[in-house]
Each structure stands twice: as C-alpha cells, then as structure tokens.
C-alpha cells in the first residue's frame, strides 16, 4: 500500500509541475521510477529502459491534461506544435531504436546523460531568468529552426524520459524571443504528441531480459496507473498557478527542480 501511495504522491507532484512549468512530469518520474522498479524486481540492466518508457507514459497524460486546460483558455498554437512535433517524433523513435533500447544504454549512462542535459539547461535558465522582466517578444521564426528544436527535444525525451520540455522552452524563449508562458503552452502540446508516439513504440518492444512481473513491452501499468491518477488531479492547478506567477519566478522554480534532480542522479552515480 505504501509503495502505491508513493507513486500516487509522485503523480500529484508531477502533474502540478507539468502544468506550472510546461516540462511534463518527467522531472519527478525519473526520480521515483528507478526506486519502484528496483522494488518490484526489474533487472538492473534494464532499469534505464523501463524508467524512460514509463516516465514518458506518465508525461503523456500530464501534458495532455495541461494542454487541454490551455486550450480552454485560448492558449493553443497548433501550427507551432505540429512543426516541432514532427521532427521530435522522428528523432525520438530513432533514438529509442538505435540507442536507448540496447545493452549499451545502462543506468549509469542514463544518469550521466540526465546530469549533463539538466546541467546545460540549468545554466541557460539561470542566465536568462533575470532578462524575463524586460523581455520583449518578437515574431522572427522559421520552420527550419522549429524543426531543429523538435529534433533536439525528441532526442532529449528519448534519452532521459523528461518529455523534451527542458529543451523546447529555453529554445523558444531565447532562440525565438517567444514569451515564456506561450513557449510553455507549445511545449506541453509537443510533449503530449511526442510522448504518445514513443509510448506506442515501447508497448511493442521486447525487453532484453526476462521480466517476471506483468508488462506490455516496456510499460508496467501497475506502476504507471497510480502516477497517472495523481497527475490528472493536479495538472490543471499547475496551469492556473502559472498564470499568476511572473515569468522570472517560473524560471527560478524550474531551476530549483533541476538542481534537486541533478543531486539525486549524482548520488546514484556515486
């Protein structure tokens, strides 16, 4: 009972963060899921693969519900979402097939990649947080640069299970001079579509090790359902809260969560 309650609690926090920051709930899921998989006996050699697959499953629902709330308030940008999602899906699926779902991608490699990417995003976020108060949005964007954003986001999502928002929001905000709240809404839409594509892919994969617990591909519904229930209960509150917060405050809060995850992953490596 305590095990499932912790998963439910992680879902509550993940949903709130998804709606508030626009990065999906993966930043919470990748912390709690490895613990859950060790508890139920998933082979150590495939902890990374199961963590990424199930984090993306939870991230899909977090992104979907938060995107729906943005849609109801007219904060929906289908053109940008579709352009970025197309290249994101391609990069994500290729990465899953040739890199992630292979013996090479161990838990140690997974943690190193997560730390490196989060460290880069932390630097970018803190560097630009003070600029948000005087930020002026422009409309100078190209499909080519949006496609590059999608490629980077899809690769990040597949390698980390974070959903890609940690790439999309800084890219749109600083590279495209787009307001952070609009960037967040677009990020959630891309996360929803990209995560769904990768979840479907992982449902039809065969784990490299023999798994005794019930599973469908790399997805364990008995683990993700408590996460998803918690996520659906809080995602809309995160969206509401984000409308009341300054963009700079959102950036600093995002940075705080990044630091916590980096510390956790460094502890696992050591």
UniProtKB/TrEMBL annotation:
<keyword id="KW-0472">Membrane</keyword>
<feature type="transmembrane region" description="Helical">
    <location>
        <begin position="247"/>
        <end position="267"/>
    </location>
</feature>
<feature type="transmembrane region" description="Helical">
    <location>
        <begin position="47"/>
        <end position="68"/>
    </location>
</feature>
<comment type="similarity">
    <text>Belongs to the 4-toluene sulfonate uptake permease (TSUP) (TC 2.A.102) family.</text>
</comment>
<dbReference type="InterPro" id="IPR002781">
    <property type="entry name" value="TM_pro_TauE-like"/>
</dbReference>
<feature type="transmembrane region" description="Helical">
    <location>
        <begin position="6"/>
        <end position="35"/>
    </location>
</feature>
<protein>
    <recommendedName>
        <fullName>Probable membrane transporter protein</fullName>
    </recommendedName>
</protein>
<feature type="transmembrane region" description="Helical">
    <location>
        <begin position="147"/>
        <end position="173"/>
    </location>
</feature>
<feature type="transmembrane region" description="Helical">
    <location>
        <begin position="185"/>
        <end position="204"/>
    </location>
</feature>
<keyword id="KW-0812">Transmembrane</keyword>
<dbReference type="Pfam" id="PF01925">
    <property type="entry name" value="TauE"/>
</dbReference>
<keyword id="KW-1003">Cell membrane</keyword>
<dbReference type="InterPro" id="IPR051598">
    <property type="entry name" value="TSUP/Inactive_protease-like"/>
</dbReference>
<feature type="transmembrane region" description="Helical">
    <location>
        <begin position="80"/>
        <end position="100"/>
    </location>
</feature>
<feature type="transmembrane region" description="Helical">
    <location>
        <begin position="109"/>
        <end position="127"/>
    </location>
</feature>
<keyword id="KW-1133">Transmembrane helix</keyword>
<feature type="transmembrane region" description="Helical">
    <location>
        <begin position="216"/>
        <end position="235"/>
    </location>
</feature>
<dbReference type="GO" id="GO:0005886">
    <property type="term" value="C:plasma membrane"/>
</dbReference>
């Amino acid at each position: 009972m305590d095990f499932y309650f912790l998963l439910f609690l992680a879902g509550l926090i993940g949903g709130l963060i998804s709606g508030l920051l626009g990065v999906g709930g993966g930043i919470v899921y990748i912390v709690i899921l490895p613990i859950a998989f060790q508890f139920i006996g998933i082979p150590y050699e495939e902890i990374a693969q199961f963590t990424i697959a199930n984090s993306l499953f939870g991230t899909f629902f977090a992104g979907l519900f938060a995107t729906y709330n943005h849609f109801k308030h007219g904060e929906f940008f289908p053109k940008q979402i579709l352009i970025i999602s197309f290249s994101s899906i391609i990069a994500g699926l290729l990465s899953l097939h040739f890199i992630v779902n292979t013996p090479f991608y161990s838990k140690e490699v997974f943690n190193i990649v997560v730390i490196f990417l989060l460290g880069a995003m932390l630097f970018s976020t803190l560097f630009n947080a003070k600029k948000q108060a005087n930020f002026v949005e422009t409309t100078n964007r190209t499909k080519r640069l949006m496609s590059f954003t999608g490629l980077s986001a899809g690769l990040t999502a597949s390698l980390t299970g974070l959903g890609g928002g940690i790439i999309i929001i800084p890219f749109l905000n600083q590279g495209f001079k787009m307001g952070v709240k609009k960037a967040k809404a677009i990020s959630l839409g891309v996360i929803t579509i990209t995560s769904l594509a990768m979840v479907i892919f992982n449902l039809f994969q065969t784990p490299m090790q023999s798994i005794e617990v019930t599973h469908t591909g790399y997805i364990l519904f008995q683990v993700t359902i408590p996460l998803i229930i918690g996520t659906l209960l809080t995602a809309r509150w995160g969206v509401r809260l984000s409308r009341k917060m300054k963009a700079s405050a959102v950036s600093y809060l995002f940075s705080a969560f990044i630091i916590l995850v980096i510390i956790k992953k460094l502890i696992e490596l050591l």
